[in-house]
Amino acid sequence: MRKSVFIMSALLVALGLASCAKAPVKPVNSPEVQRGHAHEAQGELSSEVRK
Known about the structure:
It is a single chain. With about 50 residues, the protein is mainly α. Helices cover about 80% and strands about 0% of the residues. It is built from 2 helices and no strands. It has helices at about 1-20, 30-50. It is rod-shaped, with a radius of gyration of 25 Å. The model has no long low-confidence stretch (mean pLDDT about 85).
């Protein structure tokens, strides 16, 4: 019984460390994406003002 508890706790620690070791997921709304959207919106606004 003690051995199985030890193995389970060791597995949980190993899984926790493995999940922390992964590279972070790139954010969907990164600064480059925001900059691109802002540039597109600025272009649309300036074309509307010229009309």
